[in-house]
Structure formats: C-alpha cells, structure tokens
Amino acid sequence: YPGLEGRTVVVTGAAGGQGAAEALLLAASGARVIATDLAIEAPAAFQGTTVAYRRLDVTSEAGWEILAEHLASTLGDIPLKGLINNAGITHRARLGQTARADWDRVLAVNVTGAMLGIQALAPLMAEGSSIVNIGSAAGLTAHYTAAYTASKWALRGLTHVAATEYGPRGIRVNIVHPGFIDTDMTAGAPAAMLDAQLDLTPLERTGQPDEVAHVAAFLVSDAAAYVSGAEIPVDGAFTS
Ligand code: NAD
Hints:
It is a single chain. The chain is α/β, with parallel strands linked by helices. It has one domain: 3-Layer(aba) Sandwich (Rossmann fold), CATH 3.40.50.720. The protein contains seven helices and seven strands; from the N terminus they run E-H-E-E-H-E-H-E-H-E-H-H-H-E. The chain is globular. The site of nicotinamide-adenine-dinucleotide has 28 residues, from helix 1, helix 3 and helix 5.
C-alpha cells in the first residue's frame, strides 16, 4: 500500500484478531506500527515482528494523553499517518435485558474510545493522514444485540462528523463494516446466532481478519487519497 513507508500508524485493540492482522499488514507495507491493547505484556502476535506494542485502554483519556506525548516526542517533523480505531467489545443481550452498566461499558469502548482517540491524535496529523474506524455489519442493520448495534450505528455518526470537521485539514476519516469474521469475538458467540448469520451471507463462509485488514490498510494508505466519509462493508454481501 503506497505512502506508508516509514510512517507511523496507531492501531487499537490490536492484541489479536483483526487489530493484530491490521498491524502486521501495515508493518509489511513499511509502516512503523504502534499496536495497542489492554494487555501489559506485548502479545504473542508481535513477537519477532517490527510492530511496537504499548498498553492503551481506549476509554482512558490519560492513556491517550500519554500516547500522544510519546508520539509528539518521537515523530519529529513527520506527522502521524494513521489511526485505526479497532478496539471493540460486545454484550449479547436484547434491549429489554440490557443492564445500564453493560450498555455504558459497550458505548464507552466502541464509541467514546474512538472519539477520545480522534481528539488525542488528530492534532498530530496533517494533510494525507487517515483515520479508520472499525464498525460492524451490526451498524447497518438491527439484527444484533442492543448495545453493540447502537454503538456501531453511533460510530458511523462519529465517522461522518470527523470526516466533515477534519476534511479541510486534509485528514480522511472512513469506516469499515466487517461481517462475520473468525476472531475471539465470534468464537464466544452462540452457535445458533452464528449459523443464522452465515445463512444470510451470500458468500457462504466466514471472513478472515486479513480480509478486513486489507481494506483498512488501503484506507490508511495514499491509494485511498480521495476516499473520505466512506462506509465499506466487508461482509460477504451479508448486508446486501
Ligand atoms: P477481538 O475480541 O479479537 O478483538 C478486540 C480487541 O479489543 C481485543 O484484543 C480486546 O482486548 C480489545 N479491547 C477491548 N476493550 C478494550 C479497551 N478498553 N481498550 C483497548 N482495547 C480493548 O475481536 P475482533 O473481531 O478482532 O474485533 C475487532 C473489531 O472488529 C471490534 O471493533 C469489533 O466490534 C469489530 N467487529 C468484529 C466482527 C467479528 O465478526 N469478529 C464483526 C464486526 C465487527
């Protein structure tokens, strides 16, 4: 992917699953990747690779501030190239059974986490920088659990607000909507729920983390230089 060589990109929730795939793919394109997640130790996914790991809870303003200070002191004159807001959690309950605390937790990670990331790191970006939010097919439909669906619809709104606000600075903001991807998140879902989703997926298979990572890497790169405010499903036509 063009325009990534030697440029710094931050990925959140990158200890495994799609975030790790995004980090590794960006590094393979020559980017200096800072992968972040809740774990204190660098996750196994990055051992023996060029991906640097830092702990970051995306709901922590102080955590974002520390990362921004680290970047400010290491970037030199070269602006931050990209931020992938990938961290996400789910809570499998219908609206009537969703406790306030669970609702708050899902919204805090999936929406507020991305908002804090954009606020903290956009000042380090310039013309040609790119923010990618990882949404979900849940953000295009109403078939999923309540808090998760609401959070991913909200993330779409945040994406368009940010694309509008930061566009004049040459910063692009887009959102990717994965369908049924093989990661820890889906490994924990009830089989009946996954079977139902697979039945509605015209490509008749699940997706792999790499297949989302390629779209995210394209959006960070200069190949997507005129793509902003876009929503790209990577869902095997599930939402068609
Ligand atoms: P995953 O569970 O493997 O990855 C999510 C990561 O986010 C984990 O490593 C977790 O530790 C991290 N995380 C959770 N809370 C955090 C916090 N407060 N701060 C920092 N990191 C935190 O699942 P995944 O499928 O790789 O999920 C990646 C993204 O893709 C999520 O936003 C998810 O909602 C979205 N998504 C997944 C699917 C799917 O089918 N797997 C479908 C649509 C969208």
